[in-house]
Amino acid sequence: MNADILNLLRDPAGLPFYPVVFQGLYILTWALHALFVFLSLGALGLSLYGTLRQKTDKNWSILTPHLIQVGKISVSLLIVLGVAPLLFTQVIYDPNWYTINTLSGLWVVIFIYCLLVGYSMYYWYYYANKANKSSSKLIGAVSFLLLIFAGLLMHSFAVQSIQPEKWMQWYAPNGVVDTSGLNFHVNTIRFLFLISLSITAIGLFLQNYSDFIKSNKAFLESYDNYIKNLGSKITTFAIIINFVLFIAWSFQLGKITDIFSIVICIYLLIFLLLTKNIKNSYISSALFIILLLIISGFREYIKFNIMNNIGYNIYDYPLNIEWTSISMFILTFVSLGGIGVTFICTMAWKVGKNNGYFDATKDKTVTLLANSVLWILSIWCIVYFAWGFFILFKNSL
Ligand code: HEM
């Protein structure tokens, strides 16, 4: 395929900043999206097993509602964190993204409803389980399948977007234009590998959870040990599965001897050894986040090479540097995003670590962070609107 048409489809306004920065942000934010995708699917999946055990087993009766809660919050985070890579991929790979949104238009709409119904059913599952309804298992299972299917759709958009040589054939099979928007092509091994990371995520989460509740007197030591043990077994099993599926995927790609694939294989083996020996599970989770960053880089590496080989090089994208929007973005990201997330995480950590009632107003750090967020948000709103109106009037008057 010739990339002339793709180059013509690029945004004539050009990029507001250097493409490599968007590429880096894409890799970073997709890894974060993936972290919560895997945590939510892992937590929901394991909670379904928990619903079968919780009536007869004390440990599972405590763990299951906690897993449901973790998955529920993670879905909202995966959605929020999915928007960022979506924006970055649209900036540097806009011809790819919009072509797929046309070829698979109906599936894109179905994706929205699938997510909407799947997540709403998750809440239903949460309340049904709380009320000890026997229907909760079925509701949870349907929600799980819908969320997995949403992931499969996202996967199909991702893999179709890196097969430009097939777009014409999908658009007009045998010369007849197909406007159904029903193109749906998947790469089973790639999808299975990615989804298998949900098992690793939940295994590590269980270990973090056990380390976290250790200091909390509300939980028995036996419960804590049970969870730690379970988490460690699940993690070991999961990394072996990840390793096998990654080998299969890189073999299918013809990249088994590629340096990037070798790095991932070695990293997975070291990760397996370390998670078995490291006592502090938070370090293992940090290593998992690094693994996700590497995998995210690998996805981008595949895409960059495919596109570059046909003549579409993101580094050649026309530039039109806009310092104002870049400064606004960085300031928002660091001030509002950074302090806001630190505030929420600090408070959540302290609430969980507290044996009983936590009075945030008496905690100096939380109070300082809360006041800072309020001030930053207020200033941000003023700057945002003042700036917006200034530009609007400057351009239109
Ligand atoms: C339950 C819901 C979701 C699941 C399970 C899920 C899962 C996934 C998976 C497995 C991939 C990787 C596909 C691959 O590389 O083969 C992916 C990619 C992606 N997802 Fe999600 N996702 C979900 C929702 C969302 C939402 C709501 C957004 C945006 C708001 C989003 C944005 C993205 C983006 C931008 C990519 C990368 C696409 C590309 O590289 O071309 N996802 N998602």
Largest sheet: none
Summed up, the helix count is 13
Uncertain spans, ≥5 residues at pLDDT below 50? Answer: none
**Percent of residues in beta strands:** under 5%
Fraction of residues in helices? over 70%
User: What's the end-to-end separation, in Å?
Assistant: 46 Å
Radius of gyration: 23 Å
How many domain regions?
2
Order of helices and strands: HHHHHHHHHHHHH
Protein structure class: mainly alpha
Mean of residue pLDDT? Answer: 96
Could you give the topology of this structure?
Layout: H1 4-8, H2 19-53, H3 58-92, H4 94-103, H5 105-130, H6 136-160, H7 164-171, H8 188-213, H9 221-253, H10 259-277, H11 281-309, H12 323-353, H13 364-396
The protein binds protoporphyrin IX containing FE.
Would you kindly provide a brief summary of this structure?
With 397 residues, the chain is mainly α. The protein has helices at residues 4-8, 19-53, 58-92, 94-103, 105-130, 136-160, 164-171, 188-213, 221-253, 259-277, 281-309, 323-353, 364-396. The longest helix has 35 residues, at 19-53.
What does this structure look like?
The mean pLDDT is 96. Helices cover 79% and strands 0% of the residues. It has helices at 4-8, 19-53, 58-92, 94-103, 105-130, 136-160, 164-171, 188-213, 221-253, 259-277, 281-309, 323-353, 364-396. The protein is an all-alpha fold and 397 residues long. The chain is globular and about 65 Å long. The chain is built from 13 helices and no strands. It has two domains: 4-321, no CATH class; 322-397. The longest helix is centred in the N-terminal third of the chain and has 35 residues, at 19-53. Bound molecules: protoporphyrin IX containing FE. Protoporphyrin IX containing FE (HEM) binds at residues 30, 33, 37, 78-79, 82-83, 85-86, 89, 115, 147, 150-151, 154-155, 157-159, 161, 190-191, 194, 299.
